[in-house]
Structures are given as C-alpha cells and as structure tokens.
Write a structure and sequence with these properties.
- This protein has about 400 residues and is of the alpha/beta class.
- It folds into two domains: about 20-195 and about 315-405, Aminopeptidase (3-Layer(aba) Sandwich), CATH 3.40.630.10; about 200-310, 2-Layer Sandwich (Alpha-Beta Plaits).
- It is about 30% helix and about 25% strand.
- The chain has helices spanning about 20-35, 45-55, 120-135, 160-165, 225-240, 280-300, 320-335, 385-405; strands at about 65, 70-75, 85-90, 145-150, 170-185, 190, 195, 200-210, 210-215, 250-255, 265, 265-275, 305-310, 315, 340, 360-365.
- An eight-stranded mixed β-sheet has the order 1-2-4-3-5-16-6-15, covered by helices on one side. It has a four-stranded antiparallel β-sheet with strand order 10-12-8-13, covered by helices on one side.
- Strand 3 (about 85-90), helix 3 (about 120-135) and strand 4 form a beta-alpha-beta unit.
- The longest helix has 21 residues, at about 280-300.
- The model has no long low-confidence stretch (mean pLDDT about 95).
C-alpha cells in the first residue's frame, strides 16, 4: 500500500487547525482554574459561566441547558440537512478532598476535587471549539460541529439523560468523547471497538424481622446472619444464572445492623453496585437481582425491600466512529501513538447518547511519559500531564475535519 505523500514516517498527516503556543498556555490556565474551583453535578454554575464567557469572546453563541448548568454551542451554521458531529465533555467534579501537595492549582473547595479528569475533558473540547471557530472564520471548516458541555456525569443515572431530553442531539449524527486514563502516556490514546466501559447500577436493600435475644435465635429472625447470607450468597447465585462472559458483578460497599452484642436486631441495611460488561445482561439484571435477594432472604425468614437504581448502560463504541478517532489521532500524532485498550468496569453516562446516535469514546493518556506512578481515577491525589490537553484538542479538531471530508 502506498504511503500518503502528506504523511511523515509515523503516519501523521498535515491537517489545518493546529494548537498555537499561546492558546495552549491559555488552556492550561483555564484547566487549572477549573481544577481549583470544582463543582458537583447540577451545581456547575461557575464552570458553565467560564465556558460560556470564553466561547462568547470567540464570537460564538453558546446556549445554557434548561437544567441551568452545562451548555451547547455550534461552530459554523448548520444547514438543517446533513447531521453534525458532536464533541462531548462532562464538567462536574467529585465529592472527595483534593490531597495533592506542592501544586498551585489544588482545589480551593473543601471535599471537592476534579479527581476524574473532567476539567481536562472540558478544556479539550473548549480548545477544539476555539480552533474550529478560527478555521470557520477562515472558511476552512467544511461542516459545522456541536460542542456539548454536559453536567452531572457523576450523578446516577447521569446528566446525559436530561441533556438528551433538552434536545442536545437535534441535528447530531455522530458523537465523540474522551476519558482520562492514568495508565496511558500523555500524547497517546487507547481505542476499542465495542464495549469500552461497563453498566453500573446502584442497589439498596433493607432486611427486617422480629429480632430478640441472642440466647434464643431460633425464636427470631436472625437478621445479622440473614444479612451475611445475602451478602455472600446472592453474588454466587447470580454467577450461576448469568453467562460468565456477561461479567455481571454485585459488590457490596455497606452493611449495617445492630447496636448491642446480645440483641438480635430488627433491621439491617445493605448497599452496593451492580456492574455488567454486556448490554443485554444489564437489561435483565434488575429482575435477576430481585429474585436472588428475595430467595435468600426468605430462606432466612427475613423480609426484604429492594431499591434497584438504574445507572448507565455500557459505552459501546461504534466501529465506524472508532475508526474516525483512529484516523484523527494518526493524522496528528501518527499510528504509534494509538494503543488498544480493555473494557473497564467503570460506568460512563456517555452511553446514553449512544442509545440515539452512533459514537465512540477514546481513552486519553494523562500519565507523564516514563513515570512509574500508579495514580488512579477517583483518588484525591489524581493529576495529569497537561500535554493531554493538546492531544485532546488535536484529536477533536482532526476528527471534525476528517468527518466533514467523509460526509
């Protein structure tokens, strides 16, 4: 196969819309400002205002979502016919303390931190929007692009559902996103066709019985034992009722019951998460979990109440849109800067968009090259190599230009 004459030895292709040093510096400052002022889901008023102000300064017309936070902004004028590509970022933070030391952009808000990289996602989409807006002014943007800054990704079932209900996908034919990955070096991305995240639901269970004296458990519902059996046996029951390849996993995070060593309690509470690799098994999961809990609880004479809270389905990357991301990053950084990635057990509400339009999510590398650090998401010491911002902007802008050529 002949090599593209515009490609270098890595496979990178010359495309317009590169990130200037001045804009790169501005975006780093913007990301650090967001990092210092994290806001929880549906409370991202300052974040929304900052994004809106910068887009307006570039001559764009952002629209705040009906929920009051988050916004959309079209770069270029949609003709009402040919669907647009949407670039999605999530803008909320986590309710955990920022424990980083020695950095000037540590969170200034107690018990709040951008420990999942949403500040990076937001900055990358903002930067791409600014670059694409300049191309549009020069007549070099072949087709309009929608920027989507979504609130409340960390709040089950995710802010994506509200955003979709407000019409953010009107006129959109494809959608792409990134998620920070501390296992991948900055400047690189990880891609996968098919499921790249898992479904994630929340489960709350209460068990009740008459209780009594620990000397006479045979006259009571031994509720502590019943709770222990639910904790240990329900996951085992599920493992025998679901194809192992579906990866359905119930993991408990909380169990509470009793106050005295010689009193069998009357009430117990359990809470955990249900995660699933397979979309079809996820759809069946509530009925399966309900049945398993009822069976085990009834065997031990406990009355159960189950609150199964639907979270998000798996993100299932469309093969055509995944190939677009591959071509885009190869055009900017070359094929060697792309690696295969595994399906994770984490949940992401980007999946709700894919119930309506094809799309794909890439893992955006944020680890300093050569670093042996093992920082993970949702930890107070999480941080990124800010070269990831440039890589994210390059990926989004190249995808927008290549998608327009395809259409």
């Amino acid at each position: 196969m002949s090599r593209d004459p515009d490609a270098d030895l890595t496979g990178a292709v010359r495309l317009p819309g590169t990130l200037s040093d001045a804009l790169r510096t501005e975006l780093i400052h913007f990301r650090r400002d967001l990092h210092m002022h994290p806001e929880l889901g549906n409370q991202e008023f300052r974040t929304t205002a900052a994004i809106k102000a910068r887009l307006e300064a570039a001559g764009l017309r952002p629209q705040v979502l009906a929920t009051g936070t988050g916004l959309i902004c079209d770069v270029g004028t949609w003709d009402g016919v040919r669907p647009m590509l949407a670039l999605r970022a999530d803008i909320d933070a986590l309710p955990i303390p920022d424990t980083k030391a020695g950095v000037p952009y540590r969170s200034t808000v107690p018990d709040r931190a951008h420990a999942c990289g949403h500040d990076v996602h937001t900055t990358a989409v903002l930067g791409a929007g600014l670059v694409l807006a300049e191309l549009d002014r020069q007549g070099l943007l072949p087709h309009p692009v929608r920027l989507l800054f979504q609130p409340a990704e960390e709040v089950l079932p995710g802010g994506a559902a509200d955003a979709i209900a407000s019409g953010v996908l009107d006129g959109v034919g494809r959608i792409i996103a990134v998620h920070c990955d501390p296992r991948v070096d900055a400047g690189r991305i990880g891609l996968r066709v098919g499921p790249i995240t898992s479904a994630c639901d929340r489960l709350e269970v209460t068990l009740d019985g008459p209780g009594g004296h620990t000397a006479r458990p045979h006259l009571t519902t031994d509720l502590v034992t019943a709770a222990a059996k639910v904790v240990t046996e329900v996951p085992a029951v599920l493992a025998r009722r679901v194809d192992a390849r579906a990866g359905l996993a119930l993991t408990w995070g909380r169990i509470e019951s009793g106050h005295a060593c010689n009193v069998i309690p009357q009430h117990a509470e359990l809470a955990g998460t249900v995660r699933c690799l397979d979309l079809h098994a996820w759809r069946d999961a509530p009925d399966l979990v309900h049945a398993a809990i009822d069976e085990v609880a009834t065997l031990h004479r406990a009355k159960s109440q189950i609150n199964y809270i639907r979270g998000v389905p798996p993100v299932v990357n469309d093969p055509v849109v995944t190939e677009l991301l591959h071509e885009a990053h190869a055009a900017r950084r070359g094929v060697p800067a792309i690696e295969d990635t595994e399906q994770s057990l984490g949940g992401e509400d980007f999946s709700w968009y894919l119930e309506h339009v094809p799309g794909a999510m890439a893992r955006l590398g944020v680890r300093p090259p050569g670093s042996a650090a093992r920082l993970d998401l949702h930890r107070g010491d999480f941080d990124v190599d800010e070269e990831a911002i440039r890589a994210g902007v390059e990926l989004f802008t190249a995808a927008a230009l290549l998608d327009a050529r395809r259409s």
